[in-house]
Amino acid sequence: MTSPRLEIDLDKIQYNASALVSRLGHRGISVTGVTKACMGEPRFARALLSAGVKTLGDSRIENIETLRLSGIATPAVLMRSPMLSQVERVVRHATMSFNSELDVISALSTAARKANRRHGVLLMVELGDLRDGIMPAELVETVRQTLRFPNIDLNGISTNLACRSGVSPDSRNMGVLSRLADVIETECGSAMRMVSGGNSSNLQWALSGASIGRINNIRLGEAILLGLDPLQRQPIPGLYTDAIALVAEVIESKKKPSQPWGTIAQTTFGSSATFQDIGTITQSIVAIGHQDVDPQGLTPPPDIDILAASSDHLMLNTSKHEVKIGSEISFQPNYSTLLRAMTSPFVAKAYTETKQQTIPCPDFRDQHQPKGEAPRWH
């Protein structure tokens, strides 16, 4: 097979999505399945829909267009404020969009009126992570002005946490979002049909048993794809953590010293390298690098260590293995690496179905863990 490549097990992804849809459904929370990490790949989207996801979300209108061209007509939300240069495309292909600027909503209104369509809006609220969002004190006035725009439907409010600053979702900030929904309904008379609490980082809070208030939706990508809780990158009980693997081919394997020699300056990417002298090692190189992945987001197989990376090379200590040229090494990617690898034209994407037997996982705290393959060397 072509390498490097991402091996994506659709059955394991569907299983993870189904388990989370079920668990959150028991709490009255719907799931927006996020397709951006797979660039709007229709096979991935269909796996989510088969798992019970009713709404798809993406931060790029281009990915939503890919879904539409494949025949997927499911409601789709653009999860980033639309660019003014793209409002016509947004109105044509997205059911609704996240917004925090009145100028953008005005442009969406004009585009929707020209297209004889209605476009849904979710207003983003800033709750401390300092990415996008309207300050809470300005929200009611923003709602009042949004309601004046023709062909615009104010569907609700949303927020995003644990992204720029790592602020964790909890009962306090989720309580603020719930109260804001109540205030809008009281002062503006507009029903907040969707109150979207955030992303995969909301799972601990949402399934903790705490009162969810008005929160009735969260957006899930990383938790479904990687089976991990983003707050601490720990496995979510009962989910597969190996649904995706990154496979790269060995192009060199030689005995080399572990210490460089000569005058040491900055590396290609401007950092100052540090080295531990452990004597002579077997250094193997696989054909992948910074241009394709975030090397820090790769977990190698046991007894293989990542030493360094350049644009196109990943150097490994494989002293405990006999590595042959042309053999392949499989890594487990984190979300950052997955995003970069998925967008690289040099990384092939291999979608597979393993027909995993579905094991009921009714509770987030269920300790039954499906047996997934560990990262492997072969």
From TrEMBL:
Biased composition range(s): Basic and acidic residues: 363-378
Q: Where is this region: Disordered?
A: 358-378
What protein am I looking at?
Alanine/ornithine racemase family PLP-dependent enzyme
Give the Pfam families listed for this entry. Answer: Ala_racemase_N (PF01168)
The record's annotation in PANTHER family points to:
ALANINE RACEMASE, LYSINE RACEMASE
An example Gene Ontology CC term for this record: cytosol
Keyword Isomerase, does the record have it?
yes
- Which GO terms of the molecular function aspect are on file? alanine racemase activity; pyridoxal phosphate binding
List, for all copies, the residue spans of the domain called Alanine racemase N-terminal. 8-224
Q: What organism does the record attribute this protein to?
A: Roseibium limicola
Identify which cofactors the protein needs according to its UniProt entry: pyridoxal 5'-phosphate
Task: Enumerate the SUPFAM superfamilies for this protein.
Answer: PLP-binding barrel
Q: Which domain of life is it from?
A: Bacteria
Give the range the annotation lists for the signal sequence.
none
Keywords carried by this UniProt record: Isomerase, Pyridoxal phosphate
> Is this entry keyworded Isomerase?
yes
